[in-house]
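Marked as duplicate of an earlier ticket. Keeping the data here for the record.
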Amino acid sequence: METLLEKIRKYNTWEGLPFNIGFERSAYLEQIVSYIGNNLIKVIVGQRRTGKSYIMRQIMNFLISKHAVNPKNIFYVNKEYIAFDDISTMKNLEELFEYYKLHFNIVGKVYIFIDEIQNIRNWEKFVNSYSQDFTFDYELFITGSNSNLLSGELATLISGRYVEFEILPFSLKEFAEYKNMKITKTLFISYLKAGGLPELLNFNNEEIRRHYVEDLKNTIVLRDIVQRNQLKDLTLLEDVFKFIMSNIGNLTSVNGIVKYFKSKQKKTNYDTLSTYVGYLLNTFIVHEVERFNIRGKQILGGVKKYYLNDLAFKNYTLGYYPSDIGYNLENYVYLQLKRMGYKVNIGILNEKEIDFIAEKSDKIMYVQVAYLLNSQKTIDREFGNLLSIKDNHEKIVISMDDIKFSNYQGIKHIHPWELGYTN
């Protein structure tokens, strides 16, 4: 254990030396640290390379600098680093943790941080045990890249004793702050093309960016899906992902995907494709949005819409074309509504589609998205669909027109780069 402790020492805060916290994600940091000081398990989830590890280090830095926590009272494990390879099971983790406490003669509360915890076998037992241990004061922070992290037995064991935070790629505001630029239409278009993967912003060469996105996609597909689930048909999984990327913002069903592949002479079936779509959703690389009947107040089954966690996957894999900007814009609005804390559905009312119904606490917002309001037909459709909803909740039309329309019968018209920032 002493050898292992020495191997991981440089990744921990025990020496009291400065460590790299990266670009501060202040919105997430403020949200998470507001929960510090209780026994709730802080669960940080999200797609790979969206900055979960940096946020963990920012929390550790906050504890030391703002809460005067002794650096030795912070225990950090990151299963992405080779130094932690020997911690492969719950037993390994427990033995190391108990040795750490003994070695440093720890007194007082211990803050436990475990990054990519799903790579430790039976980790659930460790989390459940230490989160309930009344003989010592512990506070746990864990991250994972799989949406099933808290499914099954663990969800039952810790029900009501955890709070979950989903980390998305850089927002437009963070993109602007990172580049030290003001939010403008020009910057927004650059963001729509580049996406918000944090590390991608460090590369100036387009070919390097393309390779980075391809490598990340392969890591998610090969390591997180194929190896973990022992899939045999990698080509089919990649084709499903390409289909979803090509159809973001379109109403889609698994039956529709089956028919598409059969038309291309690809052998498959409903169960297989449904499972593969589920695997993609579990890695957070894709989001699924259901339809909601506004009049009947119920979720509708069948067709849904899919959006990407970051547009870089589409733009650097399939290409960035002018004809795609409307779909990319809709993808952006969906993600921005999620960042604003809304639960998002597609609205259906008397055969008319409302692009998004966003709900948060007792607030509801209806949103229509159009690239340009460049014809009377488009104007009538976007504003008319919202006018058909006879309630007093907020209604917004979002487009990239250079000129902003006046509010019409209570419906606001805003630019996409204003959503969540100035309206």
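See parent ticket for discussion. Residues 124 and 175 are 36 Å apart (CA to CA).
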